[in-house]
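Now for today's protein.

===
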Amino acid sequence: MATLDDVREIALDLPGAFEKVEGHRGGASWRTKGGMFVWERGPSQTDLAQLAKLGREWPAGIVVGVRTDGLEAKEELLAAFPGFFFTIPHFDGYPAVLLRLEEIAVDLLREVIVEAWLLRAPRTTARKWLAEHGLGSE
């Protein structure tokens, strides 16, 4: 079971990552100069209404959004780990998934956050980090 503190620790351990509190929702987000890669995501009234029309509810607990490497990667995560990852109509066509922190193991959370960070990190920084961690080049 992961927590928001785990998200914070993992994200801020990555080179060039920083935390910002989002004004429109008040939740934390973690970014690089290239953009946001993971963020706290509560439901809007529109989200709740759309889910109700689909016969679904917003899950209990803390939810974060995580950038994916395109829509195919998004669909793969949703299919492989339906207990952890989900999406909502607002995210249709957007390369990101939502995840239930209370359901995901910290190791898998770390993997997903690092993959998201690699999409937003400068290429030279990402290549250096991968090499330092024995993961080769992109």
Notes: The chain has a mean pLDDT of 92.
